[in-house]
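Thread amino acids onto this structure.
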């Protein structure tokens, strides 16, 4: 399909399945991934409307929508615009940032357990940075910083320590428009960077040598992506505290829905927004006025997610055997097909998913 525009700036636009082309730029897209993003966005909006209407001063969804358009019940304007809408917006923005950051880190580390709180770039530098080194150094740094945090708790005043403890769990209570501005500003600045470098993430998953051969500078691209992912995480923590497990679970759940290869950064962002917004709605429905921190709900859900991840990993047929064959093939300097082509060692982590997903994840290295 093509669209012609008249006038001096006449341009030709061609739209095909998975491709949008003009004279100056080319955009590739996955139809299923776009539909998944639209579905997740719609569900996030529905959860936001329900959360805004939940509380001591209850509002139905039509009343919430009418209040947002300036024609709500008496007194609803203050409740919606000053108390509940900022909290709902912070939940969606924080979840979007955490989900996108998690997709970046999991792609760079090639590990489904990779998340922003185990990444330390400079300490892991040794003639370049690789996924395993990033994860191991990050775990060590996280343990040291956790011990320092515990020491500060012991030395602090009990009231301030209690406030800090609530914040470290991740909470949306008493959020206002200043928190919305912080989260929105971070997304406006950093999301375009991640989207522009998203294709480079797919190439980096093939290995540094392959990415360099395709014209992608590995270290510079990795540094930009790590900076953007860290910035998104810092934005989320500044607005709501370190909400746990969202950055870990959102990319994997989004991948299961899109069934698309690659990091799926946009769908992971929308999945994170839905997770945090739904967790906020659950805290309001379950606890009423005595609001639990939203991190408690995501922590419980994260435990269920980890159990599912372990079960799915154990259920992957031949996972350990495939990892052993890949290691043996690397020692021989050949692929498992015996082609005599040296191959880099591959991560032993098997992503949970269907047989089709596993074949797609390893099609550039070894056959399943």
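Threaded sequence (368 positions):
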């Amino acid at each position: 399909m093509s669209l012609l525009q008249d006038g001096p700036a006449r341009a030709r636009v061609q739209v095909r399945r998975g491709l949008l082309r003009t004279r100056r730029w080319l955009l590739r897209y996955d139809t299923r991934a776009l539909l998944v993003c639209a579905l997740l966005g719609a569900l996030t909006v529905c959860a936001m409307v329900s959360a805004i209407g939940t509380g001591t001063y209850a509002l139905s969804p039509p009343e919430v929508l009418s209040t947002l358009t300036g024609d709500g019940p008496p007194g609803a304007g203050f409740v919606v615009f000053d108390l509940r809408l900022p909290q709902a917006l912070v939940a969606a923005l924080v979840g979007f940032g955490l989900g996108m950051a998690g997709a970046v880190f999991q792609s760079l580390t090639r590990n489904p357990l990779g998340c922003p709180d185990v990444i330390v770039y400079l300490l892991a530098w040794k003639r370049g940075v690789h996924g395993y080194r990033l994860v191991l150094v990050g775990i060590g740094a996280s343990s040291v910083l956790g011990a320092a945090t515990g020491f500060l708790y012991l030395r602090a005043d009990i009231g301030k320590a209690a406030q800090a403890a609530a914040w470290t769990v991740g909470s949306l209570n008493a959020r206002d428009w200043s928190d919305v501005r912080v989260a929105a500003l971070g997304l406006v600045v950093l999301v375009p960077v991640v989207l522009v470098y998203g294709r480079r993430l797919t190439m980096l998953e093939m290995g540094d040598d392959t990415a360099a051969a395709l014209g992608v500078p590995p270290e510079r691209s990795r540094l930009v992506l790590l900076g953007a992912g860290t910035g998104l995480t810092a934005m989320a923590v500044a607005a709501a505290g370190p909400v746990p497990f969202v950055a870990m679970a959102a990319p994997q759940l989004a991948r299961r829905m899109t069934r698309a290869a690659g990091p799926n950064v946009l769908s992971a962002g929308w999945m994170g927004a839905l997770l945090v917004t739904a967790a906020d709605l659950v805290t309001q429905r379950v606890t009423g006025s005595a609001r639990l921190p939203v991190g408690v709900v995501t922590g419980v859900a994260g435990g269920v997610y980890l159990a599912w991840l372990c079960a799915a990993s154990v259920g992957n047929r031949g996972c350990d055997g495939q990892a052993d064959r890949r290691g043996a093939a690397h020692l021989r300097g050949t692929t498992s097909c015996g082609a005599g082509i040296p191959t880099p060692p591959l991560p032993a982590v098997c992503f949970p998913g269907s047989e089709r997903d596993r074949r797609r994840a390893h099609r550039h290295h070894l056959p399943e």
